[in-house]
Structures are given as structure tokens and as C-alpha cells.
Amino acid sequence: MSQPLVIICGATATGKSSLAINLALEIGAEIINADSMQLYRGMDIGTAKVTVEERQGIPHHLLDILDVSQSASVASYQELARNKISEIWERGNPAIIVGGTGLYIKSIIDEMNFPDTDPAIRARLEADAELLGAAAIFMRLQEQDPEAAATIDSANIRRVIRALEVIEATGKPYSANLPEDVSARYPEAIHIGLEVSRESLAPRIQARVDHMWDQGFVAEVEELIKEGLLEGTTAHKAIGYSQIIALLNGEIDESSARESTVTATRQYVRRQETWFKRDRRINWLSEDQPHLQKVLERINS
119-177: what fold? Predict the structure, then answer.
């Protein structure tokens, strides 16, 4: 690598964005987003997307590139992100990848090949999901590939069906189609993970959700519905957004929507931890360590 490539990962609410910006200011880097929901225009409050002011002039890439009616895909993201790294290096700058979507990060740094979609298998699985329900189709994945099920949201039917499709099409567990952590494409990348104790993380998540509501999260969702949020297959299922949609539909009250958002975030954090803890390349920094100093030492070592 002509310039450093730094990956900053970890669970929600651990301070990844702040560290990435501070590091970029120190080393003159550009930042690439690796949060799947921050790809969407207008999904700002509910994804805790850094504002233009918070970016402090640091170029941020792969934010706001999709309409909420469009579907994100790992394969397209992989190509976009790798191209961005090359462009940043051509400008003579380091690149920082930051986010909590583990599969997206892995798609960049490892040699992942995505099995082709089988329309017949997909249609049958979708019909099963419609007939049997989300819980039953997720239980099928748990039985066939518990490792994959531990990292996939049971409510994300699209991903559950995709995992089952790959299992049936390849005859192997979905997790077996993920490459080993060998960084074949970027072997000198620096992997940094931020971790916070459960005791500290719980109030952070609560405060994060409360802040989103105070900022006007409900109004954001109302506006996005007008822009096609319900028409896509991905964006409307995001944590917080799906709860507010249920609120607006009269299915739950506001207190329940907030409580459910907190609970769903905590569950997501556990899946993120399960995913990232499997990667032996990650250098973990705890909340009581000077993050920026430690990362600079790692880059300069």
C-alpha cells in the first residue's frame, strides 16, 4: 500500500465516527462509510450520520448515495468501496474505513465472491416465508447454519432468505461461503476495533435513542415515507425506522416504539460483537484507552 488503510469497526455507540474524524485530521486521510443504512439519503437522525459540520472538512465517501426506495447490495458496495480506496490513494492520501456493518467491511478487505441468485430457489423461499412467517423461516436458518443465524437479524427476512438460498444452491453453510480472515486484498491494512463494557454501553444506547427522538426522528421517518421509504426492500427495516413506521400505522404507541428501538439496538450490538470478535486481525481498544494515540502508534510502528 502506498498509503495506510485503517479499518475502524465495532458495535453501535462505541465512538467509531469520532475516532475516524480525529484520526483523519491527524494523518490527512479520507473516510469511507461502512454502515449499510448510511448509504441512504435522508436517513440521518436514525443512523447517527455525522453532519457536514462534524466532518470538519474531512471528505466522507459512500454516504447518501441511494434513495430510500432503492435496495443496497453487498456486491455493489464492494465495488464502490474498493474503487474509492484506489481513488484516495491516487490522490496520495490515507484511507479510513469506518462502520459497524461487518459484512460490508469484509467485502472490501477479503476476497469475497457472491454466489449467483437462483430465482427458483428464491421464489420458493419467499413463498415459504409468506406462508410460515418470519420466525419459522429464521428457525430454519438456525437449524441449517447456527453460525450465520447468530449474525443475522431475525426480522431481516431478505438476508435470512438470501442465506438459505446460498445454502441450498451451494450445498454448504452460508458462513462457509465467507472467506477466512486473510486480508488477501489489503494484507497491510490496520484493523482497529472499539469496545465498551455492557455497563457503559447500555446507557449510551438509551441516550442515543433519546437524542434521536429529540432531534425529530419521527418527523424524519414521515418525510422519508413521502419519498418512497415503504417501496424499497431494505431501508424501511432499519432499526428505529421500522418501529416508527409501526407507530405511525397505529400498531404501537410512542413509548413502545422508543423502548423497542432500544431493545433492537442492544440485540444488534450483540450480533455485531459476535461478528467482529471472530476476526483475529482486529486490535481491540477498550474505553479507558487513549484511542487516537494508540492508533497513531500502530500506524507508525
Answer: Histone, subunit A (1.10.20)
Under CATH, what is the fold of the domain 5-112+188-300? Answer: Rossmann fold (3.40.50)
Alpha-carbon distance values, 246 to 84, 249, 256 (Å): 37, 5, 10
In which residue are the cell numbers 425529530 written?
216
**Which stretches of the chain are assigned E, i.e. beta strand?**
5-10, 30-33, 60-61, 95-98, 190-195, 283-286
DSSP state of 64: S
Of 8, 17, 10, the C-alpha closest to 38 is 17
Closest CA to 238 of 160, 148, 156: 156
CB 276 within 8 A of CB 3: no
* Inter-residue long-range contacts of 283-286, CB under 8 Å, 24+ positions, other chains counted: 283/190, 283/191, 283/192, 283/193, 284/193, 284/194, 284/195, 285/192, 285/193, 285/194, 285/195, 286/195, 286/196, 286/197
**Rounded distance, CA 127 to CA 105, Å?**
31
0.90 exceeded by the pTM?
Answer: no
- What pLDDT tens digit does each residue of the chain (301 aa) get? 569 999 999 999 999 999 999 999 999 999 999 999 999 999 999 999 999 999 999 999 999 999 999 988 888 999 999 999 999 999 999 999 999 999 899 999 987 766 667 788 888 888 888 888 888 999 999 999 888 888 888 878 888 998 898 888 888 887 766 655 555 689 899 999 999 998 999 999 999 999 999 999 999 999 999 999 999 888 998 999 999 999 999 999 999 999 999 999 999 999 999 999 989 999 999 988 889 999 999 999 8
State the Cα–Cα distance between residues 193 and 190, nearest whole angstrom: 10
Domain ranges of the chain: 5-112+188-300, 119-177
DSSP 133: -
